[in-house]
Amino acid sequence: MSRALAYWLFRYRRTWQGTIVVSVANPLLFLLAIGAGLGSLVRGDVEGVPYLEFFAPGMLAAAAFQNAFIDAGFGVATARGRERVYQTAVATPLSPGAVMGGHLLFIGLRVFVGALAFVLVMAAFGLFSSAGTALAVLPAATLTGVAPATVVAAWAVTVTDFPRLNTVFRFVVMPMYLFSGTFFSVEQLPAALQSLMYALPLWHGADLCRSLALGTATPGMTLLHVAYLGALAVAGVLVGRATFRKVLYV
Amino acid sequence: MALIEASGLEKGYPGTDVRAVAGIGFQVERGEAFGFLGPNGAGKSSTMRMLACVSQPSGGSLRILGQDPVTHGRELRARLGVVPQDDALDLQLTVRENLIVYGLYFGLSLKHMRARSAELLEFAQLADKAGERVEHLSGGMRRRLTIARSLVNDPEILLLDEPTTGLDPQARHILWDRLFRLKNSGVTLILTTHYMDEAEQLCDRLVIMDKGLIADEGTPRELIDRHVTREVLELRFPPGEQQQAADKLGGDVEVLPDRLLCYADDGDAVQARVTELGLQPLTALVRRATLEDVFLRLTGRSLTD
Amino acid sequence: MSRLPAAGGAHLVVLRNVWVHKGGTPWTMALFSVYEPILYLLALGVGVGALVGRVPGVDVPYAAFVAPALLATAMMNSALEETTQTVYGKLAFDRYYHSLLVTPVTTRGMVAGELLWAVLRALITGVGFLAVIVVFGLARSPLVILAVPAGLLTAFAFGAAGLAAAAYARGWHSFQYVQLVMLPMFLFATTFYPVTVYTDWVRMLVEALPLYHAIELSRGLALGEVGPGLLLNAAYLVVFGGVMLAVAQSRWATLMAR
Hints:
The complex is a heterotrimer of chains A (250), B (305) and C (258). Chain A is 78% helix and 0% strand.
């Protein structure tokens, strides 16, 4: 697994500077334009805090989720399809499980770096009451990305039709991104949609990040969110072991 | 009057001193099949692009169908057919649609193209593939479709850039047959190739190009007679003994890294001499001289790219 | 005997693109293109809009304020999609334009044809999103109908820029730079709030952006606030598009002569 990870790190050394710039620029742009700009029009507080403070941790979770889908969906499908990286790897002593594990570790690292950049930008906006708060939010955001990434990777390795990834991105990821309590509170949604959002991973991630950032977290809810996302991650790995094996040992 | 007349034709590209075509002259008559042979970088493709009226000559003169390609490029292109090396088919359209849409680019009517595309599909032996997407075709089918496409406007001159490169032997022979039929129906063919057998099969006349210049011109037979002997004896010796054997044998002998080529009108006689001299080659083979021998003699044996 | 096609064969390039899309009706195409702006309209216009109420200074409900901006950006995006990656793929990988080069279609005809197609494609998107605005009850003035032709100017301006970008691209990664310009422009060019939230010098920067003028024009018409300023916005788009078209034409001429 570490050897499979080493492959991705070796490739990453050529592009990491660019991805860091994007990782910092994206939160900066969104926090300025939506959080501060649009936020200046918002009357009063949202869930008891100014709009920017409400929006920032939600956006942090949404960005981690979206980046994880792009890396795990398009990244895995490309590695299996056009680039045939996996096929090359399993021709060596690496097992399909190790190939998957290595790539997932790399995706996790990327999600972590993205979350770190976002958290630093939030800190620059003065959105954390203490360093401890920021340190608690960072693993929460990483988990928000990694948990769905394992499931997406398990599915993406079976996808040969690239446009299908785009379809899922448009019709599954985008609505979740916008309506999971990221830009506005899910309590504003009609009851049916609200329950649907409670069942989906991004709401758990967004609520986890927000409650930790604002200091409103309760042990019960925190445990529920972490358990939900943790179970998702484990399920993804278990399914992925089977799908990677099936696809790579033809 | 010749269909194409070129003299002192040159092509250079901005930013480099190297002239891809360094002053060549040739004439192509109506109904003949005219070939450009040469290693990579000899200037064949640059010449073809000028003939297709998509690239302006940097010097010399060029007349196609009696007109100047620089001032009448668009009118001339309407009368030419071009088969590019990379096919460049429209991957988003079906086989039949490729023909119809291409015909529209020439200002032909949809009604005309409906009928014409059926004829062309028949000619290209693709009638049963009419509704398929191009990406599902084999290399040979794609090339036949590209040739069919180049015929939508009933061109007087057909330009083919390496028409059979990358095809398997069956596909090449089918293609040669189609090109031969076109020639018989009066279409003037101009092609580039680096396959000597293709040049011998298809070309009435050819020029051998090297480093932007014409090294020689003639029919395949003339070129063989002029530059090499009727037969060639190929001898293989253990590494290191080649030069020694060549010195002993004398005559018109070329030493290659892996074998000796002995040029002679009677190959068997040379082989008899080899035995007389007590030389013991690992293998010995007498064959007819081909254009390949001419080609290698004129353009050298070192790698060109 | 064929006659040489007029206008460098630009209409034939359009015809080819229509042919490729013949499986989809204009309505399915519109549905595809308005899906994303509808999501933004719901999330930001309706969702965040509930937190905003009426936009200060403009005094309209927030969703009605955002909708015309989303109309302009949707038409812009349609034109960009058809001219950036799509054209680049046909240029660098399919070698589609090289296959046209040996026909009577001219290089100017290719550029004009692709631009015309991009504008047509934006028209379909615009009509679709206009219907959404009306159905959502966000139309504030009958003049909102004119926001679609105004969007055609936007599509012209950005389509021309897209064709220039496609010809300068050195690989797929080049389009990351397009994204790097387009995302901040989308976020800051008064899509989501009036320009008055900015301090003076930021405001000057924003007012220099082409999308700002596209949105001003669209919003002015949609809210029925017509003034001579709109002519200025339209003029900006025409000039910007004209310059970009000239750049695109010259770059394409160089590229195709290689």
